[in-house]
């Protein structure tokens, strides 16, 4: 999920903003669930989840929290996009292993 760009054969990786971490975020009563890089530490009304992927199917047998260590072999993810959500619509956010989610 890292942003990478290659210029003249040299690959560059975007730096993570201060306070930004890979998180699973559940949004509002609809149950939409995203995984991506976001910062929940500020007082902003809106939160941008960078490189967000909607978790279409959890693929877990225990609970959503099972995904903090990465997707299971049956987890289904949507395409990558930046997603903006309103803070008052957040239901929960889990810190995750960003290496495990680099799929």
Could you please describe the fold and organization of this structure?
- With 103 residues, the chain is mostly beta strands.
- It has a single domain (19-95), classed as SH3 type barrels (Roll), CATH 2.30.30.
- A hairpin with a 2-residue loop joins β1 and β2.
- The strands form two sheets. A five-stranded antiparallel β-sheet has the order 6-5-4-3-7, with no helix packed on it. Strands 1-2 form a two-stranded antiparallel ribbon.
- It contains no helices and seven strands.
Which percent bin holds the helix content? under 10%
- β-strand number: 7
How many domains in all?
A: 1
Largest sheet: 5 strands, antiparallel
Trace the largest sheet across and list its strands.
Answer: 6-5-4-3-7
**Overall pLDDT level:** 82
Instruction: Please write the string of helix (H) and strand (E) elements.
Output: EEEEEEE
Shape: globular
Structural class by sheet pairing and helices: mainly beta
Unreliable stretches: none
Output the number of helix runs. 0
Please indicate the percent range of residues in DSSP E strands (runs of 2 or more): over 45%
* Assembly state of the chains shown: single chain
Termini separation: 6 Å
Q: What's the architecture in CATH terms?
A: Roll
CATH class: Mainly Beta
Return Rg in Å: 14 Å
């Amino acid at each position: 999920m890292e942003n990478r760009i290659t210029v003249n054969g040299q690959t560059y990786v975007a730096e993570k903003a201060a306070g930004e971490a890979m998180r699973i975020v559940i949004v509002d009563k609809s149950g939409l669930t995203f995984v991506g890089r976001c910062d929940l530490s500020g007082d902003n009304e809106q939160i941008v989840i960078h490189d967000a992927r909607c978790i279409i199917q959890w693929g877990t047998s225990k609970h959503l929290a099972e995904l903090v260590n990465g997707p299971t072999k049956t987890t289904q993810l949507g395409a990558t996009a930046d997603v903006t959500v309103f803070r008052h619509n957040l239901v929960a956010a889990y810190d995750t292993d960003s290496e495990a989610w680099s799929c």
